[in-house]
Amino acid sequence: MKLFVSEGNPHCLKVLAVLELTGVKCAIQHVIHDEKVVSYLNRPSLPALLLPSGMPLFSANAICRYLGESVGLQCSDLSNQWLEWEATELQPALAQGLHLAVLQGKGPEACRVLQGPLTYLEQSLSKTRTSFLTDDIVSVADVVLWAALYPILSDISLLSGEQTKVQNWFERVGLLAACKSAAQSVLQGKGLNAEVLKTYLQKQPAPPQRRDIQPCN
Amino acid sequence: KMALRELSSLEKALGLKKPNKYSTQGDNKQVPVLQSNSGPALSGLVTIATHLVKQANRADLLGESAEHRAVVQQWLEYRVTKVDGCQKEEIKPILKDLNSYLEDKVYLAGNQFTLADTLMYYGVHHIIMDQSVQDKETYVNVTRWFDHVQHYPGVRHHLHPVVILKNRLYTSSHH
Q1: A71 at the B interface (CB within 8 A)?
Q2: A24-63 burial by CB neighbour count: b if 16+ within 10 A, else e?
Q3: What is the ipTM of this complex?
Q4: Do B85 and A215 touch (CB under 8 A)?
């Protein structure tokens, strides 16, 4: 098995943290952002995992699930729900928020874009009695959400101060050795100010204003 | 509402006798929510569809090995992140991705039909409906896959069949 990752990419942070957490044996190759690893996709897409069968996986969340499952961490309904929410609701807001904050220096506007998802996360955490999103032990979903939010939440000034549950949960997950070392390797332990994050974002297409978009059907 | 129709078709395809109760949430009321008497509600199309498949004891539709399950999950995610809400100019890249991926495969996860095929079929149906004969020839692997899936027992339900002109397709691909 071989994992392809690039610097500064929060999706690579997800898979490296889960890889360390699970202890799955896998070769890691560092490549540049536009390296085309998955031949059938138009656009370069990282991270990518070459499965033992030779089939590549291009979705960071699917890679994390696979690594988790390899050591018996099955995704529950609740984990599935968080992973789907991360991909469909949080990611579009993050793409826009990171673009605004890092490339355009518009921190307050980034905050506004992320307000909805962060409030949802805060409310959900207020309702749970467990230390993590789904259980008292950390799940793949916790690490995926933590990594996605790492650049934003490691910058305290972008938090409204009302999201104390989110902040506590974020710190709890971040204490894991796997998360610390992955953050060091992908983002040099820095959040929004990491030069590698900026380089990564510059290579991404400008995020569409998802909220105003009507579906094409 | 699209999602709710899909889930009701999926329930029928899975042979679930008692229909579940649903609502929607989110800005455009696009996110389906499964109501439950026994536990908290579940939200999200893929999450609910996965739950229904397990409820029907058809976990095989989620893939039979860990690798297989990861591939199924990847395409389920592709459906809800890339295909849903796509703009006109995003349709071509999506069809190109799918077309080169399906070149050597019968279904999205290889030779076995899975939940990924059902949901991707529901998701791209309106795109394929609008396609010209030329488009169908350009994305010949997508067309072949689509035709397999729409004829797969129990899948089509709420959707119109799309007529695929096989003769033309097959002659043109032999040139």
Answers
A1: no
A2: bebeeeebebeeebbebbeebbbbbbbbeeebbbbbbbbb
A3: 0.93
A4: yes
